[in-house]
Amino acid sequence: MHSVVARLLEWNQTHAVCPDRCVHELFEEQAARTPQARAVSFRGEHLTYEELNARANQLARHLRRLGVGRDVLVGICMYRCLEMIVGVLGTLKAGGAYVPLDPTYPRRRLATMFADVGLTVLLTTDEALRSLPEHAATVVCLDRDWPVVARERGENLPAVAGARDLAYVIFTSGSTGRAKAAAVMHLGWTNLMHWFVTELGVRPADRVLVISSFSFDITQRSLVLPLIRGAQLHLSPLHLYDPVQTRHTIEEQAITLVNCSPSMFYLMIEKPRQSAARELRSLRTVILGGEIMQVITEKTNKALGKFGIELEEEVIVWKN
């Protein structure tokens, strides 16, 4: 019994020093260190850390004028674009919590999500506006309405939200019935992000590609990982997932880190295997989660070997 207790105590030696700032504050610090470095890219357009920080600050001031503050929920419903990242950071800087909403979801599901969290402000774009159900939130189109937002000052704002305040609200998949809203506080999010960037050794040379749905929880960490370490965030140009086109993007943009579900990754490497080996050679780290990890076909098993990947007790180990 003594040895069991000793082992449990050893396993629980989990104390670690974690930043006492919110993730958007960590981003601000990074923007001050590397203002001219490229922060986010999408379809040939880019924003530097300085530009992204300034736009997020302008949006934050505009949102505060609309009543956004501590724990106020702001919906963000738009297809992948630079404005999406401005929306996330701007909401956090205003002190609010964002709710990621995927415009490709059925309108009926979006209507339920809108109603469940009672949004007062909604950030969107003209393209996504057509997909939205009826709602009572104040709409800010970040493309059409940007000239109004751009009148605000671009310097950093005094912090409003703290560690115990909401960062974002995410919906479950609804696979067991009605999708449920789950709240994430800044304290837990900062802790998780600090662990990820430290454990994975995320560095300025990394290029992180987001291919999962904006409403998927793993997407939230994919958005933040590069921006608190001076790396580059790349948004997939595809509204819907295509494994072949995603491989092309990884090769063209020299992507080094991808975070996705196992089934999405398996489709990328399963066939044609020679093309996959060539197009994915820039990858340094692949994070898989959200599903059981298993080899689904004999071809996939052979393909994993070509990449120097081992399947150990249902854990993918990338050997690049």
Polypeptide structure, described:
- The structure is a single chain.
- The protein has 320 residues and is α/β, with parallel strands linked by helices.
- The chain is 40% helix and 19% strand.
- A six-stranded mixed β-sheet has the order 2-1-10-9-11-12, sandwiched between helices. It has a four-stranded parallel β-sheet with strand order 4-3-5-6, with helices on both faces.
- β5, α6 and β6 form a beta-alpha-beta unit.
- The longest helix is centred in the N-terminal third of the chain and has 17 residues.
- The termini are far apart.
- The C terminus is likely disordered.
Largest sheet composition: 6 strands, mixed
**According to CATH, what is the class of the domain at 23-240?**
Alpha Beta
What is the β-strand count? Answer: 14
Radius of gyration over all CA atoms, rounded = 20 Å
What gap, in angstroms, lies between the N and C termini? 42 Å
Structural class: alpha/beta
CATH architecture of the domain at 23-240: 3-Layer(aba) Sandwich
What is the H-and-E element order? HHEEHEHEHEHEHEEHEHEHEHHEHEE
Query: What is the spatial order of strands in the main beta sheet?
Result: 2-1-10-9-11-12
Please, what is the average pLDDT? 88
Bulk shape:
globular
Short description:
The chain has 320 residues and is an alpha/beta fold. It is 40% helix and 19% strand.
Describe how the helices and strands are arranged:
Elements: H1 2-11, H2 23-33, E1 38-42, E2 45-48, H3 49-65, E3 73-77, H4 82-94, E4 97-101, H5 107-117, E5 121-124, H6 126-129, E6 138-141, H7 146-149, E7 166-171, E8 181-185, H8 186-200, E9 207-210, H9 217-224, E10 232-235, H10 243-252, E11 257-260, H11 262-270, H12 273-279, E12 285-288, H13 298-306, E13 310-312, E14 315-317
Parallel strand pairs: 1-10, 3-4, 3-5, 5-6, 9-10, 9-11, 11-12
Antiparallel strand pairs: 1-2, 7-8, 13-14
